[in-house]
Amino acid sequence: MDRYSHIKQIYGDELFNRMQKSKVLVVGAGGIGCELLKNLVLSGYLNIEIIDLDTIDVSNLNRQFLFRQQHVGQSKAVIAKETALRFNPAANINAHHGSIYSSEFGLDYFRQFDVVLNALDNVDARRHVNRMCLATGIVMIDGGTAGYRGQVNSYQKGLTECYECATKATQKTYAICTIRSNPSTAVHCIVWSKLLFERLFGKIDEANSISDFEILFQEKHKNSLDFARKVFEKVFVQDIKKLTELTEENADKKDTMWNSGKAPEPVPFSDETSNTNTAAAAATDDALEEQRVWSLQENISQFLSKCAALHDRKTSQQSDLSFDKDDDEALQFVTAAANLRCFNFHIKDAKSIFDTKAIAGNIVPAIATSNAVIAGMLVLELTKVISAHDSENKVSSCRTLAGYLQDPPMLKRKKAPVFAMPLPPPNPKCFVCSSNYVTVTLNAKQTKLDYFVKRVLLEKLGLREPMVYLGSKLLYEHSGDGSDDDDDEMAQVFKNNLNKNLTDLGVTDQCVLNVSDGAVDVDWSVRISHDGVLDLDEFKFEGDTESKVVAAALGEDEKKIPEEDDDDMVVWTEDEKRKAKENKQKRGLKRKRDGEEEERQSKVAKVDVVEID
After folding, report:
1. 176-360 in CATH: which number?
2. I want to staple 120 with a disulfide (CB 3.0 to 4.6 A). Which of 12, 28, 298, 568 is the partner?
3. Given 34, 133, 177, 398, which residue is catalytic?
4. pLDDT tens, 212-230?
């Protein structure tokens, strides 16, 4: 029996032949990438190339199902190819263990594909692929998940918005003074505990002033447990007592000076509470250990045992440690330290290991089912592109697809676990896919070219290898290998220019700089507007999108944590958010008019569901 007979019955011979002849690039072989590659070969797509720089970690095995224990440490792309070929040996898959930024994956490489499928885990890589697709005119389909939510977007130059038409959410930061002296949430305490980990076991960082351990480091200790007890005494007892003295000195402000309304309290310490065997006994608890919140006694014993173990590890390795959410000892140390900090400041929200991992690792936990659903949507949208008869508009039948496997929104009084939205048009103010014309206001007399290149070109515009022209004069060219050859005359000129103010280089008010990116075939015109009031480290940027990106959960973006693994936050534009709220209000008014009977009927109304095998 023909293995493709069922697919031919669905799509027909003509479309199926086009699917088999098409050439697809998959970028990323992680949680979504594994599901995607499997779906492609089972759907009849035979010509596939996949790129991923990562190697397989044991923490990937619970959701990246193409990998097994024996594959740990090997290339994700290579192993994904080998496993996928077992699903369909007829597939022609080329796997590349490398960076998408590599010069071997340049414009000529991209031009050979019909569609590029993104299964990436970070914004910067998505931006790069977006610009490569814009430069070559290739359709890009991007998929991402955030916990139980996911979204698929299709992009074609000139017809839809590009990936950068809307500003992407940035990681939230916290004031060190709040974290150190007056935390109000468990998140503050987790951030503090990560800093404590780095201070005790990581590289020396003068900016990390979480506590002063110089005297403690210089003391001799009987053993690692003795070191751990001294750390405990300092951070959870002595430092807290110093803070309580502030309350006594400012008795008239004691009700307002602390976020909790109470002065911080030292953690009680005794031989009984410091028993390091407590954690072992806790394993018999019926609750899943990783999702169980430890008692105060367990937090104390976990802190002491893990602090001692990490101290032993650093001493034996004679090297600094860095926090890794998949390092059990490091994660347990941070969990215990954060919970003890919560006790100090009367924060009634201690966290389990599972919760701490999500926050400390700055991720929304990856859900295998979400990855599977989004990977399926990616293949559906890909097939729409391949089926397009209009070569100029390949995304005419594509939609932005959003999936909610938990708490789906209501549309027309029905829950909508999956729903589609029209593809947004290009943003005329996007500096990537539109005019590529931006205005930067700064103090040209004080701003050095080095600051302009790093802050404006590299960080704001996201260029990788910028070249800066003033008329026909080349002011700066980025070295392709990341180094400057001092023996090269022009390289020395560029190096000297970096230390000069813009006005010294002839860049004056309303001057236009032409900027090219050597890595991507895209040019920008940057108009310089001089403002003598601005400090040398300030600038204003015009030409960026005005649309603020928010989470699809209708205003709940502040509750989300930036992700690192196979996730990308589901986003709506401000206009879409406003329309959704208006629709929600209209539905509420209608329910009120229809009365209680209508309410009862709506609760039993048939709803659309997502069926997952």
Report:
1. 1.10.10.520
2. 28
3. 177
4. 677 776 677 778 899 999 9
Mean pLDDT of 241-245: 81
Q: Does 133 appear as a known binding residue?
A: no
Q: Flag whether 189 is marked binding.
A: no
CB 32 within 8 A of CB 117: no
C-alpha to C-alpha distance for 509 and 206, rounded to whole angstroms: 39
Burial of residue 41 (CB within 10 Å: 0-12, 13-18, 19+) is buried
SS3 234: helix
Domain spanning 437-542, CATH architecture: Roll (3.10)
Q: Which of 221, 174, 183, 203 is nearest to 337 (CA)?
A: 183
pLDDT (mean) for 266-276: 68
Asked whether residue 322 is marked as a ligand-binding residue, the answer is no
Average pLDDT over residues 15-36: 95
pLDDT at 603: 37
* 34 noted as active-site residue: no
The whole-angstrom separation of Cα 340 and Cα 243 is 16
Place of tokens 């697709």: 133
pLDDT at 396 over 80: yes
Question: Is 100 annotated as contributing to ligand binding?
Answer: yes
CATH 3.40.50.720 intervals, the chain: 5-170+366-421
453-469 pLDDT, tens digit per residue, is: 998 888 888 888 889 99
Q: Is 212 annotated as a binding residue?
A: no
- Who's near 574: CB < 8 A, 6+ residues apart? 547, 548, 550
Residue type, 188: H
